[in-house]
Amino acid sequence: AVTEPKKERAKGRAKLAELAAGAVEAEADRDRYRMEEAILASAAASKPDNPFHWTFLKAFPGKLAFSRSDLAAIAQAVRSCMVERIAPDDIIIRDRLKAARADVQDAVLHGILDGSKAVDASVAEAYIGKLDALDRYRRADAAGRSYLSAVQKAKDEGGDVDAAVGNLLKAVFDLAQSKKLVTEYQTEHEGMA
Q: 148 or 64: whose pLDDT is higher?
């Protein structure tokens, strides 16, 4: 009778492993993977004299964030080639992915490096802008939900709602400052230096 629960747990673990093996990561945004792959394919195909080469180097990492770890690993490998002024071919990218211990499916890498998913530089640049905007919407939504949750908690517990408002204002100001929407002024000490 003691082994029965162990068998059930083993069956449960096996079923969970089976489900995990067949799992597919859901897209954060409609067509996001397609846009990310097009950006990567365009970057991999761009030459140093192509304006998109520099657009990609300025955008990643930073403004451009990839939603999947495999695409982020490919982006890092492509970027490192671009910085070193090396053409990002299949062998070099695979070596860099292996060194980074990145798990990337052959079909995904091939689809990016063969150029079939590359788009015009202006389209790839527009995709970067769109993905950045979607990420900013997501961060703003999360901040709003966090604020509403803090207000509800203050209401339920009889806490200070002004503290929740203060935290929201700080988050909004920090976001505005990081996006250069608010002018940063020198302190008196900095102005004298």
A: 148
